[in-house]
Amino acid sequence: MVLKRYTPPTCTLEITAKSSPLSRWAGQPVFKSLSFELRLDDPRLPDTQHVTLRGDRIQLETLHEAVSTYVQNLLGESRDWESNLNSQIDRTAAGPDSPSASGNAAIFDRAVNTSELATSPPNTAYLPVPPRLEPRGLLAHNLFLGSLSAAESGPVVPLSTLQLFDLATALDNCAAEVMALPNLNRESRQPLSSPWLKVAALLVASAGVTTGTIKMLDRAATSRPTDTPSTKTPSHKRFTAPAAPAHQHRDFRQPQLAPHRPRPNSPHQQTEPHPAATPAISRQRQRTQRPTERPSIPSRANNHYSHPRRTAPGPLPSTRTSTLPPAPTTAQTSSRRTAPPAALPVCFPISRSRAATLPPPHRVHCPPRQYRTPSP
Amino acid sequence: MRSTVKSSAPTNETGPSPNWEELTRKAPEPTQLDNIKAQLDLVLLALEALAEIGSEAMLKVAAELNLEPMVADRVALWRLRQSNPLRKGEGGRKKLDVEEARSLVLISCHLACQHQALIRRAVALLEQMAEQNREPHTIALLGDYIDRFSNTYASRMEDAEKLSARELTNLALKLLIDLLFYSSPGGHRRLWLALLDRAKN
Known about the structure:
- The complex is a heterodimer.
- By secondary structure, chain A is an alpha+beta fold.
- Chain A has 14 helices and eight strands.
- By secondary structure, chain B is mainly alpha-helical.
- Helices cover 64% and strands 0% of the residues of chain B.
- Chain B contains nine helices and no strands.
- Chain B has helices at residues 17-24, 33-51, 55-64, 74-82, 98-114, 116-131, 140-156, 165-182, 187-200.
- Chain B is globular and about 45 Å long.
């Protein structure tokens, strides 16, 4: 969709972007695949001299930097007005070989190069030559397009002062309004990662659900013969647990400390006491250990895709909401959240049993931020 | 100063505070101020000559921008502009401090913004004249501007005798082009940075 359009008299700058589904969580618009189309369509010029440039966000930022640095250098020129202005009448004759012009270009080149260096690590592949400008007399300027050049435009676009001013104004306004918005910049990885995201999300979710069920059934079987504190609670409460939002489970730690042992909720608490019990139970425990270890595989998968997830949030909400219906809704309404919801299933098998030992009213008090701490 | 209290995000023209704050990020050396005073006075002179702006209009803008403490009345404005070291006469000259320089920057850019259409037309005509290889004088708008600028410069500045008519014309045209860039929403920042740049040399 067209996000913004800037229409000073001699050019048109159009910004297009896709609104990302992440906007829901960010609390403000988030855009991805931002691109621009710049038409240098001065009505005083014939149509054949109109030039259209297209590029992505980084190219737009580089162009903005190039133009504003050039303009600032132009304005900051000190006392060489006289020599510079003498060439203004015949603007085509005055080339960049005048001392002031070449000096200006040198300064400008340096500025652009440093700016390119600063942003080069991620973009060197597709932005080898940044745009730059050179004066052509006092009233005219040459815009060297670099890698922005299109077949129709050629490498250099002559700009009048008014065109330069309009271009600078449009880019300034755009920078103030559009570029300040958060953006998802790494769209290049998206096509590659999105199928993996789906697979990984499904994997993690299904692992969480299966371990949860196995554990739940297992606990139901072992609760009768053993007297461990973690199994004291009536088993029916445990069956209510899977419905509870997973992100709340971790926050039951603190309430749990008071009624039970000093540190009942260390990650090994559930598995450590049991090998000391009867052999039959320990065998059963070994079965439950497998599920508790299994999240380490999804957690790797989780780490694997939680990184590109920011770049491609598309498939995630659908899989997540389908596998864990209650959690996301409460999570989203409670606060704006950027924590990866895909981490939920990792802590799911461990924390679920913990939640089962707790009275439901505590759920109200859980601060959602703790949800970000890594699962043990 | 009192207008630095508020801090809001981007530039808008409703109040001086955000714009003012932008100008406080960079401050000139005391030795640069003389140069800055001269430049600012010239920018205002160009505006006067092009748009026939008088001190009333400048004071009105100062009031709009809540800069009255700096520029309270006609005398205060005159004293500020008289701080230009190029000015003739000693009487009433005062030191221009950084806050006053910033105030003049905001006033100049606000005025340039108000008269952007006129500045634009003048620059367009100048480009047209250059393309046709004609003297800028031959167009009424530019001719009047150059005449007014030269006359006022000659009556106010000490070094006017040293400058030829051609040099004065070039100075006027350079200032005209600069005014165009100062008339944009970010013009105050451009003018301030240009003043600092020029003062360095």
